[in-house]
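batch job 7 of whatever, protein = Transcriptional regulator, AraC family protein
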Amino acid sequence: MAMTAWKQPPNSKLPELLAELASWINRFSPEDGTTPTEIPHVTLHRASRTGEPLRVLYQPSVCLIAQGSKQVMLSDELYTYDASTYLVASVDLPVTGQVAQATPKAPYLCIQLDLDPVEIADLVLKAGAPKPKQQGPHRGLFLGQTSKELLEAVLRLARLLETPEDAPTLAPLAIREILYRLLKGEHGWRLGQIATENSQAQRIAQVIGWLKAHFTEPLSIEKVAREVHMSPSSLHHHFKAVTAMSPLQYQKQLRLQEARRLLLSADVDVATAGFRVGYESPSQFGREYRRLFGTPPGKDLRRLREGGAIG
């Protein structure tokens, strides 16, 4: 899904607001990489050069770029966004991300806010659910146009980086406004679906939670369908609508990403890593690992330990 062209309205304050946001991110993330902040659920990202593709698991969050651009692949769908757009993941999704525009003089700068489904549900209850524009659940990843109102709310949150003692009182107010602006946006109904009790989208979010908790176990669609009160066929259809992959493909990505983490951070060999994430056959583990990451586990591990890029 390629990003559509965006035209800045006349006399817009967006450039000024984005410049201020960039200065805050630049100040509190002076080095490339991911920087946690003293404000819970707020993370900063910086890159001074374009990078190779990185496979990660996006948790429910909104990412707003102040400078540069990024590409995200969900299955075979491409999402490209920059300072004119924001990206929302409404459920946990295995994706491939790549910084597409960044230089040492103009680094990629992004602020990420993790989303709390409970908080969204409370806001939907009080402010009303956005009216769905389409029937049924749709992708759990979407782009929206950055508005002045959303950016001002994000800036109120970013300014608290300088006074973290104020964050416990003031950050929840800024976060609540950010959620409100997201829900009022063009695609806010997609976010509202996840928080709507007994909706198909919320049930798929429950399936994802179950898969994350039980990804090392053999997958039984019938068992999972009973857990969320859906038929197996309905579960499969709606799961693919939200995640762009089948439950089995999703489970494989969870397993292989965890195996890669084990290989990199724990003192385990390839066979042990595969066994720990649920593979009984080392050869099957090797084949699927290579299919996802492009190289066999042992070779990939050596490259990672030598400081190579994660692809």
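notes: The first strand starts at residue 33 and ends at 36.
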